[in-house]
Amino acid sequence: MAATPAESPLDDRDRRLIGALQCDGRLTAEKAAAVLDMSTRTVRRRWTTLLASGAARVVGAPRPATGVGGILLRIKVLRGRVDAIAATLAAHEDIPLIDLSATGDEIVAVATGRPDAVNRVVAQQTAVASVAAQTVLHVYASAADWRLDALTEAERAALTTPATQPQRPLDATDRAILAALEPDGRAPAARLATQCGLPESTVRRRLAALADSGQLRTQVLLDHRRLGLAVNAILALRVDPGQLDRTGRRLAGHPAVHGAFATTGDANLQLSVRVPDLSRLYALIAGDLGGLGIASVDTVLLGKPIKN
User: Fold this and answer.
1) How many other CB atoms are there within 10 angstroms of residue 281's CB atom?
2) Residue-level pLDDT at 1
3) Cα separation values, 157 from 115, 160, 273, Å
């Protein structure tokens, strides 16, 4: 069956335009066109299609948290109950990410609340066969750090707006504007002004000041299947403690790694990876992980995303 336009792989120009948005989610079409050697009209048209199709979505990112103290959960569930339990967990604000395993009998989740509160939530669920929970001790890379390999370093530098002013305390107006940007990081100033009940001139001035101080942050959420990254997996690695930091830092820069975390437990390094197919996953495990002090690898293939 032929892929529909919304499912078809992205071409090189679309990939480069997504790479540009990863540099600056509020980038203008004029600047992107100049750096990427495209017409402004082409940039606008393709961005509109990418965002409307769901291939990419720009959101306003809150002040980055360290991630330390978060809890990575693997919950084995009796068959027939996994969807109901996943939906119950998704209703909790302190569980922001939930995926189902490809086998359909395991829930993989991230919890940000207090461990005792998270334990109570999980303990209330019936039909849970087992729970493994690892606390994040150090973040080597998060999903927000990952960049599509579509631009040169010179292009990334030209498209990234550096902070030129020191950060300052945010007031109520700043916080209102940033909150309004969360669902749509490219929302125009006029719309933000209407949502916040502020003059458009004030919103434009505050947006410029937040950008200058590096406090206006965006993140691009992607349909990785459109990028040809059909396989999503979690690798739980057991690494020699003396090599943990070196291994974590090295793997954080691997193009397939979308998250790398040192954690408690026997598997003390957790990786989130996306690759085109199972042969690439095998090559990553059998080849790229070699010589890094890794004693064992537990691989979980992920299937249906529930909450992100």
Assistant:
1) 20
2) 38
3) 40, 5, 26
